[in-house]
């Protein structure tokens, strides 16, 4: 189950790159509307307003497509092979899923016209109750249905993956052989997805109530809620389950619900981007959404962890410093610029529970302090790019200067705490080991040679069953994880490994993970062709 949830968490990351890129574009054009930076004449110029309006339309459309993007991403991520067939099938599943729910709602006499707030109030419903009832429904791809958001995408994605994995190799009798294999998957989707729709029709109202209640609990918990989120998110880093927590906060009612320009929007990141595009910003909504976003990560990603790298360098053995200097600088720069922190975190979380818990505590504290100070810096990256675009260049209303002030304090605290703990308990962080691995750790290995080295370190061709990757980790299913050679993996640029169980392994490469995954896949394909 843990392996399954981890794979699901990775699948949920699929739409994030699109949404983050859309958010960055929205952040950049919003700068063009800031008269303090560009002047009144430029900000109000017709061509600028046209550009801004066009970008807002595109980005708004992308966020409207989030449910089907999640459906496709989950179906692809959870399918074992022939993933393109799963992607094709899930589009059918998603549309039919909501069409059947629409049909059931019509049978009950529920449609878009009689669920508006005005109509409900005219029929004796209180305003609050009318708003709550109206918010239960939406029009998705032209179909009136329950407002399920990304949950509808996740449900159809999981169902499609299950059907695909079970039937994509199914062979039918000769008379029906044309419909065998991959062609049989869409047929089974058409036959089975109405069952899922009927079950969802009856179950979703109760599930929706529970989700909204959980979101309300988190929202009403104030700074305690933000602390617990930040603390839990970093504590889950070694397991990979932080991806699941993040996506639930960013894209579902657990991260909050707000009404912007008459439209109900759920999820902290979705609310932030909608508010960023609004002509007049509601700062209460903005600050409530951003308390779960990057403003809580900047102090330790931009300032704290780079300082921890410096502490690891200063506590390393003099003879090892030239060999780890490049690695630590690269890891610190990656965290500073992009907010990808795992290359640093995996250097200490498995060998020092004290530093791991300290880091998680400082993360929770950062989220809590940013909330208390009313900072309003959003998006989902966490590095200097986000701080500049969504903080500094947006103006003083974001209170970005408080992020920098706290960040400088974090840099000092991280440096001295890491330095003290490493020396006091003789923690074997990079450069404090006498082994020979570091002799070659800084050598660049390229192309097919890299793939070959990784394959050998993982126990050879026959030991590797599945290869995948997320933003910083190579995710593998092996025949036996006990036979891998960790020292050889370090020579390929690995920052550490996570053994999930006897079959599942994760190798941390940071920003180089795409190259590592591609090289390994190419090497495996080359051997398979020659067999």
From TrEMBL:
PTS EIIC type-1 domain residues: 1-434
PANTHER family in alphabetical order: CYTOCHROME C-TYPE SYNTHESIS PROTEIN AND PTS TRANSMEMBRANE COMPONENT (PTHR30009), PTS SYSTEM, IIBC COMPONENT (PTHR30009:SF24)
Superkingdom, taxonomy of origin: Bacteria
Domain PTS EIIB type-1: 448-530
UniProt-recorded name of the protein: PTS system, maltose/glucose-specific IIB component
Organism: Candidatus Enterococcus ferrettii
Residue positions of the active site: 470 (phosphocysteine intermediate)
Pfam families in the cross-refs: PTS_EIIB, PTS_EIIC
